[in-house]
Amino acid sequence: MQNEERQPIYYGKLEHNDWSMYLAATETGLCFVGSQEKEIDEVKNWVDKKRTGATLVHDEEKLMAYKEQFISYLNGENPTFDVPIDLEGTPFQEAVWKELQKIPYGKTVSYMDIANKIEKPKAVRAVGAAIGANPVMIIVPCHRVLAKDGKLTGFRGGIPMKEKLLMVEREAKA
Questions:
Q1: What CATH number is attached to the domain comprising 121?
Q2: How does residue 3 score in pLDDT terms, banded at 50, 70 and 90?
Q3: What is the pLDDT of residues 144-171, one digit of tens each?
């Protein structure tokens, strides 16, 4: 991991229809997507734990390109994001996050499917933990991962947010 000392992390709030979440980005790309209706403390706590020494800077303008793509996605107009992301995790986490990005829009897979895809079939719980540590939910679509029996389980943004995201995708595909 690179040294994050004094690196600015810009943040802003996305508010659109009944969506409200914080976004944060470095000069490299989007590094954090907040949970629905959470306060700025969620971003601050993540930065304190994962990007120690970085400086949080409120800058709505720097986040505008990200916000525009999220709004388009949330409106069901554009299923893909082409903004840069700045992900840092363990090699295992990064392998899981890379696999999540291959899940097609409007489709779901199980935790077991992801474990098999990364050739770690016995690491289902570790896959779940890596998915839970995904800092850029929605763009890295962890909401598309369900339990083996198809039930909605664990999601950093909460099950209601997961349901809502899956509904956006179902309705857009219909």
A1: 1.10.10.10
A2: very low
A3: 999 988 899 888 889 999 999 999 999 8
Burial label for 39, CB within 10 Å (0-12, 13-18, 19+), is exposed
How big is the chain, counted in residues?
174
The reply to whether 66 and 116 lie within a common domain is: no
> How far is 41 from 86, CA to CA, in rounded Å?
20
d(CA 31, CA 134): 10
Q: What is the pLDDT of residue 5?
A: 52
- Tell me the two tokens of residue 57: 């800077």
Q: Which residues are catalytic?
A: 142
- Give the tens place of pLDDT for each residue, 81-110: 999 999 999 999 999 999 999 999 999 999
Looking at the structure of the chain, the number of domains it has is: 2
Q: How far apart are CA 35 and CA 14, in angstroms?
A: 11
Phi, psi of 117 (to 5 degrees): -65, -35
Residue 2 lies in a domain: no
Measured CA to CA, the distance from residue 28 to residue 84 in angstroms comes to: 7
CB within 8 Å of 155: residues ≥ 6 apart:
137, 142, 143, 161, 162
CA distances (Å), origin 25, targets 33, 61, 102, 119: 9, 11, 22, 31
Range of the structural domain that residue 118 is part of: 91-173
